[in-house]
Amino acid sequence: MDRTFDHSSLGAFLRTRRAALQPEDVGLRRGPRRRATGLRREEVAELCTMSADYFARLERGDGPQPSEQMVAAIARGLRLTPDERDHLFLLAGYRTARRDLRTRHVSPGLMRVMDGLSGATAQVMGPLGETLLQTPSAVALLGDQTQYTGHARSAPYRWFTDPAARARYHPEDHDENSRINVALLRAAVSRDGPGSDAAELADGLRHASGEFRALWERHEVGLRWSDTKRFVHPQVGRLDLYCQLLLEPDQGQSLLIFTATPGTESREKLVLLTVLGTDRFAVMTEEDGN
Fold it and tell me: Rounded to whole angstroms, how far apart are CA atoms 222 and 171?
């Protein structure tokens, strides 16, 4: 803790932010008998993955100091802007959010879009390929990509260091995907400069992967991802999907939405992933011994 935990101001700030959020802002329906000016405490607590009693104590100003991870969860649940997030950390007794927690903060605009995509296959990505948020269907398609730490948070790093990262992509696309990952990282290093996160990631990959080193020396630029992607899922097999991209320029974040052509086998498989969800597929994987 870097400074005094301001119980009273933290509680007041949480109350005003909760009152400012409307059910429609977080993908909830407004019932005919709703009297609250904003969200109910129970609704916010669920968004923040904490108990309603704990959140109520924080609002009253008599709760214990929340951990940095808990403050980050509150910032996400309340759809705070980066400035509001940093203010929340100060009120909670921390000088600022840790670097890893700042980079995991999804912009409010993309959070609002994601709230309306709960039944879709979508995920929010950071500027270096960090998966920040996934819908259940996206987890079913690609696995939980939000669990990683360090360099492994970045998809390009996992692509070159973890064979499992390539397993759900069609083998015929692996070489091209490797070239695109390198070209995009090179562009990020050129944009952000020496000493940046991108440069640090590239340096780590040069030490960790001979394939990456060889491709880095080719100095390829201007390569882009195709709108179509071919996946090989361990349970449902091959899916040919379209990937639509929505950018959030201010924070360098992007929203990926995966869709399939209606009436195709890939569409049926994508619907199956959406319906069955991650829990069912986790059970199936355990039964298969994978």
Answer: 23
Contact (CB, 8 A) for 21 and 44: yes
Mean of per-residue pLDDT scores for the chain: 86
Provide the H-helix boundaries in the chain.
7-20, 41-47, 52-60, 68-77, 82-91, 99-103, 108-115, 136-142, 155-161, 174-192, 197-208, 210-216, 265-288
The CB density around residue 8, as the number of other CB atoms within 10 Å, is 11
d(CA 93, CA 204): 33
Q: What's the distance, CA 237 to chain centroid?
A: 25
Cα dihedral 248, 244, 117, 100 sign:
negative
Would you state the pLDDT for residue 233? 94
> What is the architecture, at CATH level 2, of domain 7-105?
Orthogonal Bundle (1.10)
CA 143 – CA 23 distance, rounded (Å): 29
Domain boundaries, the chain: 7-105, 110-288
Q: In whole angstroms, what is the distance from residue 4 CA to residue 74 CA?
A: 19
Q: Partners of 247 in the beta sheet? A: 254
- In DSSP terms, 253 is beta-bridged to 248
What CA–CA distance (Å, rounded) separates 169 from 240?
10
pLDDT of residue 128: 92
Q: Write down the architecture of domain 110-288 according to CATH.
A: 2-Layer Sandwich (3.30)
Reported pTM: 0.74
Regions of the chain where pLDDT drops below 50:
1-2, 279-290
Taking a C-beta distance cutoff of 8 angstroms, is the pair 239, 260 a contact? yes
